[in-house]
Design a protein that fits this description.
The complex is a heterodimer of chains A (252) and B (300). With 252 residues, chain A is mainly α. Chain A has 11 helices and 6 strands. In chain A, the strands form 2 sheets. Chain A has a 3-stranded antiparallel β-sheet with strand order 3-4-5. A two-stranded antiparallel ribbon of chain A has the order 2-6. In chain B, the strands form 3 sheets. In chain B, strands 1-2-3-4-7-9-10-13 form an 8-stranded parallel β-barrel. A two-stranded antiparallel ribbon of chain B has the order 5-6. In chain B, strand 11 and strand 12 form a beta hairpin. Chain B is globular, with a radius of gyration of 18 Å. Chains A and B meet through helix 1, strand 1, helix 2 and helix 6 of A and helix 2, strand 5, strand 6 and strand 8 of B.
């Protein structure tokens, strides 16, 4: 092991002694000083996760969250120097973390929070104007064959839990006592200007957008969604997608 | 004998000046303050950003930085290049840095005499290096690579450290002087770091500053520290950037201005971030000291 490799091993594992060859001017135990580095690494990375996952933290409390985050930091330290996106695999870690099993919706709330961060920092892109879209929509012949390119900030989360409502309750938007966490919800994450929004979609609208995201044509997505959902409201979801400036292009 | 090391010659067209930041005080740009800044356009010398925070595609951060850059000089300060690492520089990161510098054309780019990653793993802390011939060689190679890639001169910041290495064969200032001489990079003198390291390793902070080449200093950093104790109960200062600048650091700053001359001065605050007005007021203490020392220097 190289000397920095030993340094890293000891940083990430508090049970290991500090690396050899450390000096202190007063002959004091270098372990106490090395602990400053260990603490900086741990605390700053746990803080980075707390910044990204505030509602996840609120759902389990700070002490539980930080203990769980510490284990995650040890198991999966960042692989990028851009910490904004640290924690992409945190939701999966939560799913496999036995003490969190009593809060089954925790992982999906974490997923939603990560998607919000991605949307917040996503590349800027100019949406098609409502007028241009209206023009495209009048071309009845080609319409079913069109594919839609969405804004890079847009993403979807289909959950067996009430992720959007749980998130909203922690912003003071909704009353937590009225929420049944076990109600399935689909979240549409968008960023019309600079502010990120998570909108609760009807299950049929969620399936429709999911198919478009996978590259289905409008015709295919409409047909499939109508077959699966008798209550599918095409006009409503298209109106929402247009109003919230999520459509970059509609092309053959 | 150490292997010979050829300093990189500045690429044609690149600035050979240490910095073109104004001789004024600046503050670290924080997202919490974006709105107030673009609503009030405070009279400040410059802003500084951490490069890694802006290595994202778009959104709020770029929206505000673009507007702020139109009105203020900018310093880009990297915290993730890991110049002191045993492993090679991360080329993807270097390219992202290059793109950011191209986009915002900052007056200054600086990084740390430290390492923060090992291979792929990023540790998000500025870790110390032993001051040996071998480390010197590696750090100089990395700085050459950065300066060649970015086609500009960089500033290197002196570290705040909590431990020393028995392997070190030279002092920190000897090590830094040699880097400056070999690579032609400039020095970002972090006065808070000087104070912290000198308390932590029982050295004289004035001697430390006297040992540095005044003409190499392109920028000064000021920040606050936290105080703890080591295993013997002696003070151990932590570079926390979470409190106002300590009185002792202001005094050392005044000494540095007298000793090395004036340089653009940044007030750093990265934790427990106060309102913009509080940060601005503190930066004006540095601005006044800069003015006093500029006047004294011009009279001398």
């Amino acid at each position: 092991m190289s000397s920095q490799q030993k340094f890293v091993a000891a940083l990430l594992n508090a049970e290991l002694p500090p690396p050899a060859g450390l000096l202190t001017w007063n002959g004091s135990d270098p372990a106490a000083r090395f602990a400053v580095y260990r603490n900086n690494v741990q605390v700053s990375l746990v803080n980075a996760l707390a910044d990204t996952f505030p509602v996840t933290q609120a759902l389990v409390g700070e002490a539980f969250f930080r203990a769980m985050a510490q284990l995650y930091v040890k198991a999966e330290p960042p692989r990028s120097r851009v910490l904004a996106f640290y924690g992409v695999s945190f939701a999966r870690f939560i799913e496999q973390f036995p003490p969190a099993a009593t809060v089954p919706y925790l992982a999906d709330v974490a997923r939603l929070e990560m998607q919000r961060v991605h949307a917040y920092h996503a590349t800027d892109a100019l949406a098609l104007s409502a007028d241009s879209i209206a023009q495209v929509l009048t071309d009845g012949e080609n319409l079913p064959r069109l594919q839609i390119q969405f804004h890079p900030a847009l993403s979807l989360l289909k959950s067996p839990y009430a992720v959007v409502s749980l998130w909203a309750a922690h912003q003071g938007i909704a009353d937590i006592s009225t929420i049944d966490p076990y109600t399935p919800e689909t979240a549409l994450v968008i960023r019309p200007q600079l502010e990120v929004e998570a909108i609760r979609l009807h299950a049929s609208a969620g399936d429709f957008v999911a198919q478009l995201l996978q590259g289905a044509t409008l015709g295919m997505a409409m047909e499939q969604t109508s077959r699966d959902h008798q209550d599918f409201d095409l006009t409503a979801i298209l109106g929402l997608l247009i109003r919230s400036q999520t459509i970059l292009s509609m092309h053959l | 004998m150490m292997p010979l090391h050829t300093p990189v010659s500045p690429p044609r067209g690149a600035s050979t000046q240490t910095t073109t930041l104004p001789l004024r005080a600046g503050v670290g740009l924080k997202p919490e303050h974006f709105r107030q800044i673009v609503e009030t356009w405070p009279d400040l010398g410059f802003f500084e950003i951490h490069a890694e925070n802006y290595m994202v595609g778009g959104g709020t951060f770029h929206h505000y930085l673009t507007r702020i850059r139109e009105r203020y000089p900018l310093s880009i300060h990297g915290v993730g290049l890991s110049i002191g690492a045993e492993t090679a520089l991360d080329l993807t990161h270097l390219k992202q840095l290059s793109a950011l510098i191209e986009r915002y054309a900052p007056q200054s780019f600086s990084e740390h005499l430290a390492w923060s990653s090992h291979g792929e793993v990023f540790l998000n802390d500025l870790l110390p290096v032993p001051y040996t011939a071998q480390t010197l060689q590696r750090v100089c190679e990395h700085i050459d690579q950065v300066q060649s890639h970015l086609k500009r001169r960089m500033l290197l910041e002196n570290p705040a450290t909590y431990i020393e290495f028995s392997a070190s064969s030279m002092t920190e200032t000897e090590f830094i002087n040699e880097i400056l001489r070999r690579t032609g990079c400039g020095l970002l003198l972090d006065v808070n770091n000087v104070y912290i390291s000198c308390i932590n390793h029982h050295r004289d902070a004035h001697d430390y500053i006297r040992a540095l080449p005044p003409q190499a200093v392109g920028e000064i950093h000021l920040a606050g520290f936290a105080q703890e104790q080591d295993a013997n109960g002696d003070p151990l200062l932590i570079d926390s950037h979470g409190t106002p600048v300590a009185q002792a650091v202001w005094q050392l700053y005044a000494f540095a201005l007298k000793q090395i001359g004036t340089a653009p001065t940044l007030l750093e605050r990265d934790n427990d971030i106060p309102t913009f007005d509080v940060l601005f007021a503190e930066s004006q203490l540095a601005e006044r000291l800069l003015q006093v020392h500029s006047v004294q220097a011009s009279k001398a």
